[in-house]
Each structure stands twice: as C-alpha cells, then as structure tokens.
Amino acid sequence: MNLSRRKLLAGSAALATAAALPSLSSAATAPEPVKLRVVKRSIDVNGRAASVFGIQQPDGTPGLVTDDNRPFRVRLENKSNEDTLVHWHGLAPPPAQDGVPGLSQPLLNPGGAYDYEFPLRRPGTFWMHSHHSLQEQSMLAAPLIVNPALAFDSGPQDVVIMLHDFTFRDPQQIYAGLTGGGMMMDHSAVGQGMDMGEGGMASMDHSAMPVGMAHLNDVEFDAYLANDRTLQDPEVVAVEPRRGAQLRIINGSASTNFWIDLGVLEGRLLAVDGSACHAASTDGLRRRFFPLAMSQRIDILLQPLPPGAYPILAQREGDTARTGIILATSGAAVARVPDRAAEWAPALTLDIERAFASDSSPAARAADRRLTLDLTGSMMGFVWGLNGRKFGAHEPLRIRQGERVEIEMVNRTDMSHPMHLHGHTFQVVEIDGRRFGGPMRDTVLVPVNSRVAIAFDADNPGRWAFHCHNLYHMAAGMMTTLEYET
C-alpha cells in the first residue's frame, strides 16, 4: 500500500495504485463524515478463491488515512449479512464509541449505520477491526493511518503493510477444535455454542521443530498474507531510488507473532503502536530484524535505496513460514522469494522495549495505584483467563481519574500473551523487576515466565476492555475490564 503525502495533503480520495488508502477531505470543507463499509469480498490465496470481510470506503479502497488536525468523523455502515462492530485500535475515543459489544454500544445489524466523532490525540499507525465473535480471523480489519498535518511530499514514501494469518476453515471450527467443542466467550459475556469441527491445534511436524518452540503457536494456518497476498504473488511497491521509505507495518493476525526481516537493508525504528520513539542504546540505532506481536504496529525508516528489488518479509515466530512484499525501483528485476525461510524463527523477545525510549514520556511521578494481573490458563482444555477467572466471571480493575496507574502482568502460562488496553496509551516501565523508561504502547507482549509492568495516566474515564489479543485466547475468556470509580 503505497501512500503519496502530496495527495494526502491535497485531500485526494483516490491514489495512484489500487492498494493505496484514501484520505479524508479537507477539514475546512468536510461537514459530511467519511463512510466506511463492512463488506464481504473475495480474494485469491495461492490460486484459490476465498470469501473474507473488508472495511472499505464506497469506492472500494480499504481503511482510512487522515491528518491529526481534524476530528475523527466516520459513518460506519454494515453492508455485510452479519452483525458486527468495529474497534478503532490505538485511538482514544469516548468509551461509548470504542466498538466493543456489551461495553461500548450494541452490535451493528446488517443494513445499519453508526456515526463516530471524537478528537485525534496524535499522529501514528493504527488499525480498525471487528471486536465481535471471531470475525477478525476472517479479515474484518483495515489500516487506519493518522498523518501529521504538516507533512511534505519530499519526506519518505509511506508504504503500509498489513499482515494476516489466513485460513479457509470456519474460525468457529478452529475454536471448537481447540476447546473440544466448548463455549466461546462473547465480549458481552454471553456464551455461544458451536458444533465440533476440524481440530485447530498445530499440525506441523514437531520432530523437526527446534527445542523450546512447541508452545509458540496453537493454530496452523493455510497462508500468511501481506496486503492480501502471499509470496507466490506478492505486492511489488514502486519506490524512488533517491527517496527514503517509511514502512508502516500492522500485525492484524488473529494468532501469529512475526519477526520483520529487512533482508539486506537496515532500518531505523521511528514508532511503535503509533507512538514515536528513539534508540536508548547503540543496540537500537539500525536493525535488520524487528519483533511484531499480534495487534502491534511498527514504523521503520529506510534510507534511499540503490536501484534494485528488496523483499520486506514477516516470518512467523517458531516457524519457517513467511510472507511479505517487494520494494522495487524502476526497471528492477524481481526474483521469486520462497514462502519458507531456511531457518526457524525464534520466540519473540522484549529487547525492543529495553532498547528504545518514548519521544513523549509522561512526567516522572510515583504511581498512585499499582495493580497485579496474573495471566492464567493452559493449552490443556484451552482454558484462558486473568487472575484465574474468565471474562464474565472476572473482577474489574478499578482506578480513579487523575491517578498514575501501574499494572504488573505476571505470565503463569506456557504461552506468551500480547496484552492490549483500550482507551489509553501506556509506557513499558519494568520487565522482570528491572525498571526503565520504555516506549509508549497500547499492546505489549508478556512472554512465558515473565513479569511486565506498564504505567499510564487515568485520563479517559469509562469502562474499558483489557485483554489478550490472541483472538482465540480472548474468546476463551482472557479478558477483563478497567473501570473508573466515581
């Protein structure tokens, strides 16, 4: 998805390439909200047609690009044949516009529409996705890019890459296979029964798997996509040889962590989860590999490229499977890139949290409240929860407006968990008892046998979801609420 800053600033809704994202029209002349439609669409996955969801503007372009000097004004229309609701991941809307069934607003029925309007706090790379049932697995998601208002065409070229793990199976069959036909937790805490279907447990040859990787993935997929395509037919993005590129990579996968592999290139990290950051040590200055957990985003600056073709790859944690796009200068020969790497990718680490610091860290202040949240559960029976309870039987996390809040998450399970807090941006401040000032995020990975603490200011009163962003773990109950006391 190759975005032109000049066209964005001009308010154009149609860019030069089919995969480009639309811009909002000028704030001075735009009384009408931008329309986004939930639709069913067909894509080709390695020569086989697949029916998936999409979030599109009326002209068919996916997602949304806007500037940070105007409010978020959107009319969401449900043009599919299923109830749905969309969460604006990484933004900080009022709680009634956050898009979580049972917490924010009722489900949006087929043919219905909701209007959203709230201020944008900062520029960055965000995304939007369904928070209902298992629709996220069926690609009910799209990029949401907020550019700085004062952006210039002479800056680096934006390249948006959205990653998905893809299956031809019904996601409910996968879930039933994981749980043995158990009940799926609805976000409004109402269970939904499902028939027993095909098993969803990983089916790869574990005898060939390196030691220690058996519990990194609990679902096997048919393909891994970058901008709806596999490496059998990847997107080739034209880049200017004398202009740098800013990669905006979004992990929209339901159950897959990735390593981003720049190949022969090196990049400088600009932002994580939409928040600008900088290297806190020489280890962070320039890198080839970057970890990207489920729902996280990462912005990477590439210097002007010499003539040629350059794969930008995403390899699945604990696997050789990968996907990606190709950056190519004019006339460059594009070689086939195998969809399997020569070596297994290791488990994701937290080194990026230690190596980078936020450009906008909150003022130093002692915590007014520190909470501990145990991540609990097991792949045996596929039972997941927080503090030993499933969503619906959970105890909310209670805070007060104006407090500096710290939450320490202790992973007592045999899998890692990407923990996402709605309505707030937090700073990673502690890993395994070691204090530091890390980057600002909305999702942080908590590895096996690890303790991770986050800090944030309670500045958005309401009732907010806090959950694991592995879709199947959340569906099984690994979710709670953060609630402001009056």
Structural description of this entry:
The chain has 3 domains: 2-149, Immunoglobulin-like (Sandwich); 223-356, Cupredoxins -  blue copper proteins (Immunoglobulin-like, Sandwich); 369-484, Immunoglobulin-like. It is 5% helix and 39% strand. It has helices spanning 5-9, 171-179, 351-355, 471-475, and strands at 2-3, 34-45, 48-56, 64-67, 72-78, 86-89, 113-118, 124-130, 141-147, 157-166, 223-226, 236-238, 245-251, 258-261, 267-272, 275-279, 289-292, 297-302, 309-316, 322-328, 356-358, 369-378, 383-386, 397-399, 404-411, 417-421, 426-431, 434-435, 440-441, 443-446, 451-457, 463-468, 479-484. Strands 1, 10, 11, 13, 15, 16, 18 and 21 form an 8-stranded mixed beta sheet that branches. Strands 22, 23, 25, 27, 28, 29 and 31 form a 7-stranded mixed beta sheet that branches. A hairpin with a 4-residue loop joins strand 22 and strand 23. It is globular, with a radius of gyration of 21 Å. The N and C termini lie far apart (45 Å).
Number of domains: 3
- How far apart the termini lie comes to 45 Å
Classify the secondary structure makeup into a structural class: mainly beta
Q: Tell me which CATH architecture of the largest domain applies here.
A: Sandwich
User: Helix amount, in percent?
Assistant: under 10%
CATH superfamily label of the largest domain: Cupredoxins -  blue copper proteins
Q: Which value, in Å, is the CA radius of gyration?
A: 21 Å
From the 3D structure, determine the CATH topology of the largest domain.
Answer: Immunoglobulin-like
